[in-house]
Amino acid sequence: MNKHSPTPDAGAAARAVGVPPAWLELAAGAVVLVFVLAALHGALAWPLAAAGLALAVYAAMAGLVWRYWPDATRGLGPANHVTLLRGSLVAVLAGALAGFPALVGHAGWLAALALAALALDGVDGWAARRWRCASDFGARFDMELDAFLILVLCGLLLVLGKAGAWVLAIGAMRYVFVVAMAAWPWLEAPLPERWRRKAVCVWQVASLLLCLLPQVGSALAGGLLGLALVLLGWSFAVDVRWLYRHRLRS
Q1: SS3 128
Q2: Which InterPro entries match (predicted)?
Q3: pTM of the model
């Protein structure tokens, strides 16, 4: 998922060599997800409610991909395949929200799934560069999946009792910012690159993942997550201030 959309000629060439259209790849992803959920149900007694919600989340994601993919007769490409795989893992994690209290004893498995999803985060970019299949769609798909994963991790920490409802503010802050753009269009202006934004993001994700581990108690989790929320709020405030001061130039 990256910066340059494939040309119509590339799409025609893909069809000529039998690359499956996007809807077939999305359907194949659903089949794979069903097998994964069946394996989890058999090995870990994964609740059916959790499996059902995971499938619903995947269906919503696939629907959005189908809606915004520019050419449904063309395959998604290697980079988007990786992101779709990561999306399937995120769907399993999101589905787990409907599996409590039965999944309380499987926090280690949830942390492992989250780690796998995070590990794939850089693979799609590598695949896009390797096979030259970068696109604006891919970059947006990757970014939105990152934001949703963070919100899901916040929800899991809430139901695990690692933090109170305030932890949801970490995942919701980006969505609040997007909604605010409707009232204040100057918030949509591009921001300059800053190491501060990347550092806060790394701390945020690392804290969420670490706090999922069964060995991390609620007291330590509260401290780590509280600091993550403070840093994230500060980072957003700095960006909003910069956008406000430069609003007349946009």
Answers
A1: helix
A2: CDP-OH_P_trans, CDP-OH_PTrfase_TM_dom, CDP_ALCOHOL_P_TRANSF_CS
A3: 0.90
